[in-house]
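lol ok so funny story. i was supposed to be doing the assay writeup but got distracted and ended up predicting the structure for this chain instead. priorities right. anyway since i did it might as well share w the group, maybe its usefull for someone
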Amino acid sequence: MRRFRVFGPDCYVSADSQERYALLVRKAAPHGPGAGRAGPPPPRPPRGFRRLPPPEERALADKGPLRAELRAFTAAVRSGGPAPVTGQDGARAVTLAHRIRAAMTTW
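and the output, tada:
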């Protein structure tokens, strides 16, 4: 599973790069005059979720991010050119991950 989730003030996104699928849930728009919906009404959801709009399902591009990363690295090694991501970039990412994890345990 290669999934990540993003929670924002007005939406939630769940993306799975292995399955190339994303789900977007937006905060409901204000209700009032002129805020009606076209088409038949959707089935009634449970009480706590009645104001949420329907989630949007999206297909992600079929580029295989891990495969593309490995191809770019292999091409850099074969050509002697620079790698798209350096060792220093990787070290900074690991350091940031450790900082995030430490912040989560103290929060």
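The chain is about 35% helix and 20% strand. The chain has two domains: 1-61, 63-107.
back to the writeup now i swear
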